Amino acid sequence: MQFLLDLVLSILPYIKTIFLAIIPLGFIIFIHELGHFYAAKRCGIKVNTFSLGFGPKLVGFQRGETEYKISLLPFGGYVQMEGENPNEQTGSPGEFASASIGNRAFVVAAGPVVNLLFGILVYWLVFATGINSDSARLIGGLTGQPLGQKEPIQVGWIADDGAGAKGGLTPGDTVLSVNGDSVSHWSMFHTRILTSANRELEIVVERDGVRRALFVTPEAISSVRGDMGIIKVSAKDKTVVRNVTNGSLAAQAGVQPDDLIETINGEPIHNVPYFGYGVWHSSADWSAEKRQTLYHHINENEQSVTLGIRRGDESLMIEMPVHWNIVARVQESGIAQNAGIQDGDVLLTLNGETIENATLYSRLNAMANEPIEIGLIRDGYLREVTLAGGLQISDADVPLFGLTWQTFLSGIQFSAKTPPLPEYNFLTALGKGVEATWLTVTTVGRTLQQLVGGEVSPKHLAGPIGIANATSRMFERVGLSSVLFFIGFISINLCIVNLLPIPIADGGQLLFFAVEKIRGKPMPRKAQEIVQHVSIYLLIALFLYITWFDGMSLIHDLRN
Are 384 and 316 in contact (CB under 8 A)? Predict the structure, then answer.
């Protein structure tokens, strides 16, 4: 009984977030149907039912010719018009099929148009109320264009044994295009790699002012959605000094916040020099190995490290002694926090021995079954805490004792340089919303083109479950502006997909109307029924195919 109770309590947060995600997605579908409803009423077409939600009716009322009701599943809605289906048509006035071609096209197009207008409105709202770094990254990733200052898409670290290195990519290369498609955002480049496992790509880069065509074949790694491509390269960062501890060796040497770090001991810096917990974790990847190599390179001469710094138009070389501060980060209610360790504590000793950053993770792992004495400094005072032994290590991704750490070089905290976030007034926000809408349309159009051309597999698409899962994760991890923008993005996607010339979609009906206009008469009823039935079966098959991978991805996320 206790097991079932624990299971229910463990999944409640996921049910809550998924429910919160489905509600806005259901609203997007609802306003789509509201567009059809409004247009039908304007054109004199009889609407039998307007439902908020699907499934069995909960409550409802009749007003005029239309039944308005709320159904059990409040995620979306539907409009049922008189004579909408070919086998229900009698030719009577007020039927959908009896309306003029122009009126029928207006009714069908109204749903996608409302979704498009809603997307523009949401984008406008997001830009008008202000964006943060999370929403800026999301907007850039979804539209394919960075906000504010446009930086070159450059390659950072490259694994020596990866497909990128084998194909000739080098740190600092500026990526211009992939298979002839221009690249304006790192997420576009990443997506093309991800969806091109074992397929050769022509990557045009600029190196030292010269364009070069390189041919790279991403390696395949297995996932719940099938093989994913990887070339083991990272996006180049510009590294700046975010903070310098007062009185530290770096401060004494003259390092200042916002200094741009270009080299360390003469070696160019392509990514932020981070040396904390994740770098030494047992599951550390190739990029962590690059940081480990840099860490050991700095430690080769503990007497000094030389930083190549750009400060405005001035280039500086600043030399200082090497000293590492290992600063604790603790999980709430974890063993470390319960023992008395706090965020910001400087860790000094482990069972009386000086802590070495490179071996701290492995030592904690080896000592998990015995009490551990940790010496630390807090507010200038030396303290000691004891971590109880007997730790059962069941998940390598869970921090040991609920303890992680960051490592500062001689008092310097590094971070990636990000361009200043743009600000928009009420009018410029509208212009930016329209621009973002156009970029969304072109991005979705490019993806559809790649699907038709076989460059992207339907396995990588997301259906209702995948979209709800992505939205729920956004509710958990990012701000409201990011969630709103994503909802606007989905609304515009729904507009585009519905306008595709698929018989069961709105675009398919518009295609039928065009054929009817050219022929001077509608398609035979039998032909319409056959086309609709075939398209329904194909669409259901595609839906089940996508939903299968969505479900597998959701299960994987819940397990991890």
Answer: no
Token pair of 543, please?
Answer: 């839906």
| Exposure on the CB side of residue 466, measured as CA atoms within 13 A | 19
Residue type, 140: G
Q: Which tokens belong to 202? A: 């022509």
**Structure confidence at residue 160 (pLDDT):** 92
Check residue 395 and give its pLDDT.
Answer: 54
Cα–Cα distance for residue pair 123/111, rounded to 1 Å:
19
- Identify the pLDDT of residue 283: 78
Asked if 376 and 346 touch (Cβ cutoff 8 Å), the reply is yes
The residues near 401 (Cβ < 8 Å, ≥ 6 apart) are: 334, 335, 336, 339, 364, 368, 372, 387, 391
Place of tokens 């040396």: 275
- 3-state SS track over 15-47: HHHHHHHHHHHHHHHHHHHHHHHHHHHHCCCCE
pLDDT at 88: 67
Residues 6+ apart with CB under 8 A from 503: 509, 511, 512, 531, 532, 534, 535
End-to-end CA distance of the chain: 24
Residue 537 makes CB contacts below 8 A (sequence gap 6+) with: none
> Residues in the chain with pLDDT < 70?
1-21, 74-76, 85-91, 148-149, 389-397, 459, 462-478, 549-550, 554-560
Q: What dihedral do alpha carbons 34, 37, 41, 46 form, nearest 10°?
A: -160
23 is written with which tokens?
């509600």
Q: Which residues contact 284 (CB under 8 A, 6 or more apart)?
A: 278, 292
Q: With contact defined as beta carbons under 8 Å apart, do 21 and 471 qualify?
A: yes
d(CA 433, CA 128): 9
Taken in order 551, 552, 553, 556, the sign of the CA dihedral is positive
